[in-house]
Amino acid sequence: MKRVVEIGVLLSRSGMYAALSRASRDGVLRGVEEVNADDSLDITFRVHESDPEGRLDRYAALCREILRDTPARHIFGCTTSASRKEVIPELERFDGVLWYPVPYEGFEASERVAYTHSCPNQHLLPLLDWALPTLGTRAYFIGSNYIWGWELAQIARERVLGAGGSVLGDRYLPIGDTEIDHIIHDIRALKPDFILNSLVGESSYAFLRRLSALKQEPGFDKGFTVLSCNFTESEIEATGGAAEGLVAAGPWFEPNGGFGGSFHEVARQSVHELAQLLNGRPGAEKMPLSELLNTAIRAGQKPRLDATHLHARQPAIIARLENGRFNEIKCVAPVRADPYLTHRSRAPKGDVFLKVVP
């Protein structure tokens, strides 16, 4: 008989970035279904689910409830870096582990988090290394006004300046804000070679729709190439076709034109990763994550996660959205995550500076 392992799910089904979080949730539940049906495994997962509704103030409390009121030690969830940072103190307090299945900005390595998607040396830097010689070096940045947008812009600024390019604009919006006339005015006047879009959810969809309309104006027929490290197939429908031509970077794109994208697939893989780590090891769900990984490595397993900094090894695929599906442009073989960018390969030319944004 299989032993039961309790797990938590903390992903929103509504709110400003619901399309992304629902893709992750569907991937987790798909993974649970597959694990529970796999007779080669000696475990079955039982899910305790909470819905934060995309509200930042709910994540810590709901994480606390799962860890305090159920036997679950492993939680799959969070879609934004802000929500991830909200739950880390609760994970530390109650001996929990968060499986975080979405891209993030790096510069973190919590012993309580399994970073199963990509960080900047696996998404942003390969994307820019393709874009700068291909599209040009005049860049414009727009992002959501929190750590994801800030850090990606800082890293991208260093890379663009290091290539002898220029950053024409660097703008931020609160998550969910769709008032973007001033940004469209900027882009109309500046005509950048490419735009790095780090907006999240509804803000991103509104921006892409307005930019699509701008491309119809006289003199803008060639348009602007939008780059993204967080736009996936799960959001195509929400843009109403306005995302056509966008170039994205990620570890996985739907091979048959599906709509789950890497948020769904990495979440599904994460459930299988935990199942493999726990298989044949009664009580292992209570181990610290690094100990669990090292135990598996000593037994001859090859986990996706690095036992030192708990990030996954991932490929970097660059793909363009054409006719409603992503088509691969370039694929970089799986590389070890470097969350602190300790191996920066290019020194910037000229001054690198911090910009105060009112």
TrEMBL record:
Organism for this UniProt entry: Aquamicrobium aerolatum DSM 21857
A Pfam family per the record: Peripla_BP_5
Stated name of the protein: Branched-chain amino acid transport system substrate-binding protein
